[in-house]
Amino acid sequence: MLLVSHLSKHFHDQPVLRDISLRLAEGEVLAVLGRSGCGKTTLLKILAGLETPDTGTLTLHGQDLLPVPPNERQMVYLYQEPLLFPHLSVFENVAFGLRIRKVKEVEIKRQVTDLLAELELSEHAQKAPHQLSGGQRQRVSFGRALIIRPRLLLLDEPFGNLDAQTRTAMQELFGRVSRQHGITSIFVTHDSREALTVGSRLGYLERGVLTSFATVAEFIQDPRTNIAAELSFWENIQRTANPTPTPPQKGGALVLESKNLEN
Questions:
Q1: Which is nearest to 140 in space by CA: 86, 91, 182?
Q2: Residue 230 belongs to a domain with what CATH number?
Q3: Which of 133, 201, 235, 262 has the fewest CB atoms within 10 Å, counting from its CB?
Q4: Where is the ABC transporter domain (predicted)?
Q5: How high is the mean pLDDT of the chain?
Q6: What pLDDT is attached to residue 251?
Q7: How many CB atoms lie within 10 A of CB 8?
Q8: 3-class secondary structure, 43
Q9: What's the domain count of the chain?
Q10: What pLDDT is recorded for position 233?
Q11: pLDDT band at 64 (very low <50, low <70, confident <90, very high)
Q12: φ and ψ at residue 162, rounded to 5 degrees
């Protein structure tokens, strides 16, 4: 579906992206892990048409994207901040994309109602954005993107501002809805566990160079992802917290325990 070939970008003679090539099939979610400043956001902005590459080609379903303006690429770019319309209700925020496409009212009501139920937002349909929690606002933003069926969804650390529990819930929700609707996405993050949770494909971006992994095992074993070290850390913690029980010994403590019972 998406083909990126030899993509490069410089800012003030500083390389940000270096000869990036990738393929993404229909319905796949490419999770790109990388530290701050590695070029993740620049990659998404080039795909969205908000930045122009120095070299390289982009094609989506065989269409050359470079001459296509951002508003005609049929992509949605989601940030950490939901950027909802403050004067519109949850229902109308989600319905906005259908209204500007002049979809019939009965169809708008059906699609939005179904999607709000799927996103667990039905009871909040008439609330304003300021009445929602951070996780709820991000779900509304996700719904507004999903309702117009974008060809490609670009997510720039969308759950980065959420607390740990809400973030985990949003990762699971995104994965479930993505699979159900066959959404094709590129999801950039600096959290290795998030990458593993949401991605059907995995990559690592470092100093503008993208490494793609054929398997989850390769991704985990790459020392740059730090996953193997983290797993080892938690295994050590678990062993410390739950040591192997020592079999009862004759005499000693056992004899004293019997004496205490007798007394």
A1: 91
A2: 3.40.50.300
A3: 262
A4: 2-232
A5: 87
A6: 46
A7: 15
A8: helix
A9: 1
A10: 64
A11: very high
A12: -95, 155
CA separation for the pair 8, 54 (Å, rounded): 6
On whether the CB atoms of residues 147 and 114 are closer than 8 A, the answer is no
Pairing of strands 14-24, 2-11: antiparallel
- In whole angstroms, give the CA distance from residue 113 to residue 98: 13
Separation between Cα atoms, residue 145 and residue 77, nearest integer Å: 8
Do 151 and 12 meet the contact criterion of CB atoms below 8 Å apart? no
User: 257 in a domain, yes or no?
Assistant: no
Is 232 within the bounds of a domain? yes
Identity of the residue numbered 138: Q
Q: Which of 186, 223, 224, 228 is CA-nearest to residue 207? A: 224
Q: Is residue 102 part of a domain?
A: yes
The pTM of this model reads 0.82
> Which residues pair with residue 241 across a beta bridge?
none
Residue 262, both tokens:
């007798």
Write out the residue range of the structural domain in which residue 212 sits: 2-245
Q: Which residues pair with 2 in a beta bridge?
A: 24, 60
Structure tokens of 239? 């062993």
